[in-house]
Amino acid sequence: MPRTLLVTGGAGFIGREIVLAARGAGWRVRVLDSFRPDVHGGVPELPDDVDVLHGDVTDAASVDAALDGVDAVSHQAAKVGLGVDFADAPDYTASNALGTAVVLAGMTRAGIGRLVLASSMVVYGEGRYLEGGRTVRPPARRREDLDAGRFEPLGSDGQPLEPTLVVEDDDLDPRNVYAATKLAQENLSAAWVIATGGSVAALRYHNVYGPGMPQNTPYAGVASLFRSALERGETPRVFEDGRQRRDFVHVRDVAGANLAALDWTGSEDRAFRPFNVGSGTVHTIGDLAEALSRHAGGPAPEVTGEYRLGDVRHITASAERLRSELGWSAEVDFDSGMREFATAPLRKAVARDE
């Protein structure tokens, strides 16, 4: 008898890829999705044999119905991105923190003990830096430095710090509303593990890209923004100096990480376990824009010097824990992934308020 997996947010960009991968691995799959109009431009297509329920994770009745007969949960439903301004805070908190609490309470009632949680690199805040060979945590960058084009975090001697890869045991330092709610999801899940004896693999996604990304929401990632500009025949606009370091990981690899995590049962002292999900290869945002422009045959990127308060300078991942403990490693290399993504279809445009 095949096991049944519930994917919350399973009609979304990452969730849909997990649905397809789980089906291919022999799971029976159910989706719970709210089909929010600010995320979905129309209803995305899902395979006919997937049981699709229309409901919100903040609604206990919808969650209970979705959990009936389920063996494990992949919790992808969330409001993502930096947001427009702080007025978004209640929506982020409801969608992410309250939604996770409702899912965990429903799992408790249903006796389901295995969860894969979509977390994010944003829980770290700024990435990991070295000064004189020791790890340091820089404060948030100052507006006056950013206005002057001084983008690098500085050490005690006033010189730029050396960025390096974050590991899962590094300190957590959420620096915007979205980050705070992603950490809240992790904390709630860790508390649930203690209370119920369940297991949670918290996957801290780094910069996910690939076919089917949303194309015009204010919450889309930088890869989608560049790709959408090129599709409109416009020049990709690169903030700061384009040298921000990131780890770009393909959505199919992220789906593979979720499948690997579903087979992880934890242990008595490690039943909640975070894992970085990244390619393990460092590229800059400028590299991303250049590769997409080149493969799309579009205009060269423009480096603008603009910035957004709350953005971090460098954040790149060590995915060694996921490789050594779950046997997962990324398979799509940067250039191949960008070549595909440069011409792959994006998600239908969402409706905009006039």
Explain what this protein looks like in three dimensions:
It is a single chain. The protein has helices at 13-24, 60-67, 89-110, 143-147, 177-196, 222-231, 251-262, 285-296, 320-326, 334-341; strands spanning 4-8, 28-33, 51-54, 72-75, 114-120, 128-131, 134-136, 162-164, 199-205, 207-209, 237-238, 245-246, 248-250, 272-277, 283-284, 302-303. It has 354 residues and is an alpha/beta fold. Helices cover 33% and strands 18% of the residues. A seven-stranded parallel beta sheet has the order 3-2-1-4-5-9-14, with helices on both faces. The protein starts with a strand and ends in a 13-residue tail after the last helix. The longest helix is centred in the N-terminal third of the chain and has 22 residues, at 89-110.
Distance between the termini: 50 Å
Using the alpha-carbon principal axes, give the shape.
globular
- Enumerate the strands of the largest sheet in spatial order, edge to edge or round the barrel: 3-2-1-4-5-9-14
- Oligomer state of the chains in this structure: single chain
Mean pLDDT: 92
Q: What is the N-to-C succession of helices and strands?
A: EHEEHEHEEEHEHEEHEEEHEEHEHH
Secondary structure layout:
Blueprint: E1 4-8, H1 13-24, E2 28-33, E3 51-54, H2 60-67, E4 72-75, H3 89-110, E5 114-120, E6 128-131, E7 134-136, H4 143-147, E8 162-164, H5 177-196, E9 199-205, E10 207-209, H6 222-231, E11 237-238, E12 245-246, E13 248-250, H7 251-262, E14 272-277, E15 283-284, H8 285-296, E16 302-303, H9 320-326, H10 334-341
Parallel strand pairs: 1-2, 1-4, 2-3, 4-5, 5-9, 9-14, 10-13, 11-16
Antiparallel strand pairs: 6-7, 6-8, 12-15
